[in-house]
Amino acid sequence: MFMGRYxxxxxxxxxxxxxxxxxGVSNEVIDAIRDGKAPPFAKRDEELVFAxxxxxHEQRKVPDSLYQELVNExxxxxxxxxxxxxxxYTLISxxxxxxxxxxxEGATPELPQESN
Length: 116
Prior knowledge:
Helix 4 crosses helix 5. Helices cover 68% and strands 0% of the residues. The longest helix has 35 residues. It has one domain. The relative contact order is 0.21. The chain is mostly helical. InterPro entries: AhpD-like.
């Protein structure tokens, strides 16, 4: 969902929101991400992943302390997987944006038209 929001890719957002809900991500967290606000995470791993991806995208780097916290939480292999998945869904979201792929049929657009 992070990549869909970051790239304002409606299809990506609509396709992954149900999976996030099924995985236990709260509506409050999803709504905050959608609205460009600080999500009220209840789980430390979710908070760290969000902080890591935010730093990586906004600053093009991640502070050593945040990197180490995330490694301690999900392991080095988990961080490698996270970066790989983030890159993959960046590609998907960019493709959705360039080719103006609409949300799935029946999905209501939720993302802002311009980044916050």
